[in-house]
Every structure is written in C-alpha cells, then in structure tokens.
Design a protein that fits this description.
The structure is a single chain. The protein is an alpha/beta fold. It contains 7 helices and 7 strands; from the N terminus they run αβαβαβαβαββαβα. It has a 7-stranded mixed beta sheet, sandwiched between helices. Helix 2 runs parallel beside helix 3 and helix 5 crosses helix 6. The radius of gyration is 17 Å and the shape is globular.
Length: 245
C-alpha cells in the first residue's frame, strides 16, 4: 500500500506525524473557509474530525466549495463533508454534527471530550464569540478565521493572537465582544488587513435554515477563503506537532 502521507511524514518527522495521526480537530462552520480547512486537515493525516454546521449547500456557495457540485445543492453540509472527506481520506474518521452553535447550545452540548483543537470558521458574530469564549474558558486551543469574504490580496493576510488583529472590521467587533466577557488574548487568528468590498443587500436565494439573522450578501471568491482555510490548517498542524510560534 502506498504511503499517501509520505510528504507530511518527511516534513514533520515520525514523531510529529504520529502526533498528527493521534489528534482530533473540531471544525466549526463548513463554508468557504471551513470546508478547505477540513479537507486540508484530512489530507494531512489528522486522525479524527468533528465537522459542525447547521446549514445546507446552496447554489451561491458552490464557487467557494472545494468538493460539492450542483447535484449536492440542498444536502446538509455536515453530512456531505463527513461522507466525502472520509471517502477521499479513509484513514481520517469524520463525524458530522448538524448543529447551530450558540451559547445555549454549548451549555447543553459541550464539545466532545477528545477535541484537541478547534478550527473556528463561523461567520455569524454571536455564535462565533460564544464558541471562542467557550474554548477560552475551557482551555481548548482554538484557531479562528476572521473576515475572508470580499478580499483578494493574499499578501495582506496575517496570523497571530487576536490582540494583534488590527485592520479587520470583524476582528475589531469580535475583540469588543470578547472583552465584555473578560477575554482579551489567547485566541489564535487568521485575518486580513485589506479593506473588503462593500457588502450588497441580502440576495433572494431562499434560506434553507431559519437559524441566525438575515445578513447582507458579501461578494466572495474561492481564493481568499481557501487561503484562510489552509492557514488555519497550518497553524493547527504546527500546534499539534509542537512547532507553533
């Protein structure tokens, strides 16, 4: 049998790759950022993935989706990605969680005990800050994506602690919300200092779920969300193997 992880093993060494294989990562939000992150984690050999999303695949999201096609429109994201990623990377266990993460949900449904790290790719403000607060309080390493939509400049991407995330409007609001909860640092982030394009009014595509508020439409390509997802993956791999700086 061919070693599909040979290059990863060569990069991190046997000990590092063994740590990757033993790790469990929860990916929250399977849109443009989270879908790329989940796929890249599996391609890199992560042992188990919890894939969390409450929504379904829509036509307008296909331009940012690395795996789905028109035949998959209407399919629940968590189930789709768990099944598809496991087919591509059968050595990674993929567990779907069809859930809308928010404060009350987390009170009744704590994250799985074996979660070693969380990739936060949620794009709704209150659910995002609720998850970040939960991870901070429970000392679960979390790696969070700030705003990727409406941007194109790869050179403007930054990584680091949330306290350093200047230049991103979403990060500014997230910092404000977290400070109200007594949290000012300790969350690893990916953000961009590029000014995004102007949001558009909500489009007329029917919502397949009713949770969350109706939001303006953000023009978005596959490029920057994909890079954000891969950046999250790199941070998690480095953390898992003891190389995170």
């Amino acid at each position: 049998m061919q070693d599909t992880y040979k290059r990863v093993r060569d990069f991190y060494g046997e000990e590092g790759f063994a740590a990757i294989r033993k790790s469990t990562v929860l990916v929250a939000g399977l849109g443009g950022v989270g879908s790329h992150c989940a796929l890249a984690l599996a391609r890199s050999g992560i042992g188990k993935l919890y894939l969390v999303d409450f929504d379904s695949i829509t036509a307008s999201s296909l331009n940012r989706n690395p795996l789905a096609g028109t035949a998959d429109i209407g399919t629940k994201k968590a189930e789709f990605f768990a099944k598809t990623i496991h087919c591509l990377c059968p050595e990674t266990e993929c567990i779907p969680i069809d859930a809308f993460i928010h404060t009350d949900y987390l009170k009744d449904n704590p994250l799985p005990d074996d979660t070693d790290a969380v990739a936060d790719a949620i794009d709704s403000l209150n659910p995002k800050t609720s998850l970040l607060e939960y991870c901070s309080v429970n000392r679960i390493p979390v790696f969070s994506s700030m705003g990727a939509a409406g941007r194109r400049d790869v050179s403007s991407i930054r990584t680091g602690d949330i306290s350093l995330s200047a230049g991103c409007p979403l990060a500014r609001i997230v910092r404000k919300y977290l400070r109200r909860r007594g949290i000012s640092e300790g969350i690893n982030c990916v953000w961009s200092v590029e000014q995004g394009v102007t949001p558009l009014p909500p489009d007329d595509e029917p919502r397949l779920e009713t949770r969350g508020r109706i939001r303006n439409s953000l023009p978005s390509l596959i490029t920057l969300p994909g890079v954000f997802g891969y950046a999250l993956t790199q941070l998690i791999l480095d953390y898992t193997t003891g190389n995170y700086r």
